[in-house]
Amino acid sequence: MYDDFQKENLIIEKTEEEKKVELIMSVLKAKRELDLASKNFETAEAGLVDYYVYQIKANKSKLDFLVNKAKKIGISLDMIEELYFRRNQVG
After folding, report:
1. How far is CA 9 from the centre of its chain?
2. Residue 43, class by beta-carbon neighbours within 10 Å (0-12 exposed, 13-18 middle, 19+ buried)?
3. Which CA distances in Å does 38 have to 1, 41, 57, 64?
4. φ and ψ at 58, to 5 degrees?
5. Which of 12, 52, 77, 87 is deepest in the core (most CB within 10 A)?
6. Segment 35-89, tens digit of pLDDT
7. pLDDT at 32
8. How far apart are CA 37 and CA 91, in angstroms?
9. What is the per-residue pLDDT for 91?
10. How far apart are CA 81 and CA 87, in angstroms?
11. CA end-to-end span of the chain, whole Å?
12. Helices (H), the chain
């Protein structure tokens, strides 16, 4: 039954450097999402307050997880902040 299955694409393993870059990008994305949820909470109508509280808590948990993972593999917050500022420079 399973003998007829053929893999169409090879799965290419990422290098350690690519994994680190992807993790840093995930940290930056989670930070942006947390910031956005916080801003939306500040101007939320009464019916959306609980929704934004939930988003803030979820994004905070995700960011904490990713930062801890980054620390475990030796990525410092300074490296993440430097990349964030480079990506968001005006000009």
Report:
1. 27
2. exposed
3. 52, 5, 10, 16
4. -65, -45
5. 52
6. 999 999 999 999 899 999 999 999 999 999 999 998 898 887 676 667 666 666 6
7. 92
8. 27
9. 41
10. 10
11. 58
12. 16-42, 49-72, 77-87
**Residue bearing tokens 């801890």:** 68
Residues 6+ apart with CB under 8 A from 89: none
Amino acid sitting at position 2: Y
| Residue labelled with tokens 């994004």 | 59
8 A C-beta contact, residue 26 and residue 72? no
Query: Which comes out higher in pLDDT, residue 18 or 38?
Result: 38
Amino acid at 17: E
Sequence-separated contacts (24+) of 77-82 with Cβ below 8 Å: 79/24, 80/24, 80/27, 80/28
Please state the pTM of the whole predicted model: 0.70
30 has pLDDT over 70: yes
* Amino acid type, 54: Y
